[in-house]
């Protein structure tokens, strides 16, 4: 019987020798290289007849970040959690794509070479029947659970079953199906490797997904030679953050989150943990900043003073943020947001990275950052 995450032994109690005292044993450099080599084989030799496998790799990586740890433990995952990730990933693609170019016709993007992909079909039906325009609204609808059950069935029957088929054989290096129905288990060290190489896996999987859609002959009359597919498919547009701007302006008393000076009527919505490091629009990760501060910070993590400010803000106003931004269509998951922040800063500390404090100052990320995020 597989254990749920709440029943996994605590660090100090864990059997199997993956701890020395309280220090987690992580995959060795050789094991990490072997993992990357096998992952490369999946991308190069795997059969990608649909986009589901790309979505599965992204989903497993995000779940490793949100529910895993930097050690050699196996990680049990509910297939329902994977299905919910699929819903988030495919939701932007349940509306017709249009470039407006002559000779093209707006339509749903084909995700395979046959009929409309089942996941897209289920989500399109959910969007229409519930009237939800955002994934956050869809999750609150009465049809959500039924849709997720159907997506979970598809995920189990297709990408989970076939992702590890490489070069005509099965190479089960990522996960195994658990004895308990509805679960899989990432093999020892896999979650740690996915956490470490999250950026690489995301980049390659999303690039492959976009390429697969662009090269699908069924999409030729929709895409033409134009269009920013990645922005459409994954919601990579600044304009999508505008609904959060008015609320954040009031919450921050019209002051920049980073420098504290007046915003006037300006201000840009920034991902506190940068989008480039974790591309999800989570309500509690948003702050409002001067355009100059935002550009200067760029894709860096924020300095310790900002971490402490961010934690205090979310502690004091977390419920208000969830309510206000949830109504505006953003996902509100404060626990997940905090877990992602801890992961991002820990990975940065492990690699000797620095954090942005101001245009004139960057600081090394040390243990005090993790202490501030506890």
In short:
The protein has 374 residues and is mainly α. It contains 16 helices and 11 strands. Helix 2 (52-67) packs across helix 3, helix 2 (52-67) runs antiparallel to helix 9 and helix 4 runs antiparallel to helix 6 (144-157).
Describe the protein in words.
This protein is mainly alpha-helical. A 3-stranded antiparallel sheet has the order 3-7-6. A two-stranded antiparallel sheet has the order 1-2. A two-stranded antiparallel ribbon has the order 4-5. The protein has 2 domains: 5-234, no CATH class; 238-372, no CATH class. The protein has helices spanning 29-45, 52-67, 79-90, 118-130, 135-139, 144-157, 159-162, 190-196, 198-215, 220-223, 229-234, 242-251, 291-297, 304-327, 334-350, 367-372, and strands spanning 19-20, 23-24, 75-78, 165-166, 169-170, 175-177, 183-186, 268-271, 286-289, 354-358, 361-364. The two termini are 32 Å apart.
How are the elements arranged and paired?
Layout: E1 19-20, E2 23-24, H1 29-45, H2 52-67, E3 75-78, H3 79-90, H4 118-130, H5 135-139, H6 144-157, H7 159-162, E4 165-166, E5 169-170, E6 175-177, E7 183-186, H8 190-196, H9 198-215, H10 220-223, H11 229-234, H12 242-251, E8 268-271, E9 286-289, H13 291-297, H14 304-327, H15 334-350, E10 354-358, E11 361-364, H16 367-372
Antiparallel strand pairs: 1-2, 3-7, 4-5, 6-7, 8-9, 10-11
Structure keywords:
mainly alpha; three-stranded antiparallel β-sheet; 374 residues
> How far do the termini sit from each other?
32 Å
Please give the number of β-strands.
11
Oligomeric category:
single chain
Fraction of residues in β-strands: 5-15%
Low-confidence stretches: 1-21
> With helices defined by DSSP (H or I, 4 residues minimum), what is the helix count?
16
SSE string, helices as H and strands as E: EEHHEHHHHHEEEEHHHHHEEHHHEEH
Radius of gyration: 21 Å
Give the strand line-up of the largest sheet. 3-7-6
The major β-sheet equals: 3 strands, antiparallel
Instruction: Give the overall shape.
Output: globular
Helix percentage: 40-55%
Class by SSE composition: mainly alpha
Count of all domains: 2
Give average pLDDT, whole number.
89
